[in-house]
Design brief:
The chain has 10 helices and 6 strands. The radius of gyration is 23 Å and the shape is elongated. A hairpin with a 4-residue loop joins β4 and β5. The chain is of the alpha+beta class and about 230 residues long. α3 packs across α6. The strands form 2 sheets. The protein has a 3-stranded antiparallel β-sheet with strand order 2-1-3. It starts with a helix and ends with a strand.
Length: about 230
């Protein structure tokens, strides 16, 4: 591999601009450091998620700083571990779920099955640590969490008033059994039940899609024939 390509990794930190304290440290390449600023980059780390949302509720944005740059991957992993340890010893309450160095080599944007398994196991192991579980529980019980849950529900209800319906046979509307359904490639079914039978799945799966709970089913979009 080209020498320049081997040294495209770095160690970065997210800083709370309200108190100028680091709250997350990671290793990455390319735009990884900025992925945390998008909801898709929060993963299942609730403490990090609500720290970022709390910063934004004050009208500010987390700061991204680079602690080390132009590193080979293994060196970046080692420095990530050292930085996390150093800042914890300084008393910084980091939102990292692990002690670093465990995200596994990510070659050409794709992790191997073994690497994904290792990351998953370490994340699950971290969730059983008392300090991490306590941080997550505090995040879930916070006023900000409850406020965001209420706002999420309002958005769902505005988009589709039926989103919260329970999917049991007793409350399926007759239209799911009688109204015709069209697939986005033009194929027509006599009812939602026929769609379920066609794909050998439960009617509830199709109903959830028709109600907007699932964007697609089997890579298709189904809707009632007007």
């Amino acid at each position: 591999m080209n020498e320049d390509l081997r040294k495209w990794f770095y160690v970065y930190a997210l800083v709370n601009p309200i108190n100028n304290v680091i709250f997350y440290i990671g290793k990455g390449s390319k735009s990884r450091a900025y992925d945390h600023l998008k909801p898709s980059g929060w993963g299942n780390n609730l403490h990090k998620k609500y720290t970022i949302q709390n910063i934004r509720s004050c009208g500010k944005e987390p700061l991204v700083i680079f602690l080390h740059e132009n590193l080979e991957e293994q060196v970046a992993f080692q420095l990530e571990v050292e930085e996390i340890k150093k800042h914890k010893e300084l008393g910084h309450k980091l939102t990292n779920m692990t002690d670093g160095g465990d995200s596994g080599p990510k070659r050409f944007g794709v992790r191997s099955k073994e690497e994904r398994k290792t990351v998953s196991e370490k994340t699950k192991e971290a969730m059983w640590k008392s300090d991490i579980r306590e941080r997550h529980l505090q995040s879930m019980q916070s006023d900000l969490y409850r406020k965001n849950r209420r706002e999420d529900q309002k958005l769902k209800i505005n988009a589709n008033p039926d989103w919260h319906k329970k999917f049991t046979k007793s409350n399926y509307n007759e239209e799911y059994r009688t109204r015709k359904i069209i697939r986005d490639d033009g194929m027509i079914f006599n009812s939602a039940e026929d769609v379920a039978k066609h794909y050998n799945t439960n009617l509830s799966v199709i109903v959830r899609h028709l109600l907007g709970k699932r964007k697609t089913y089997k890579k298709y979009v189904f809707k009632f024939v007007d």
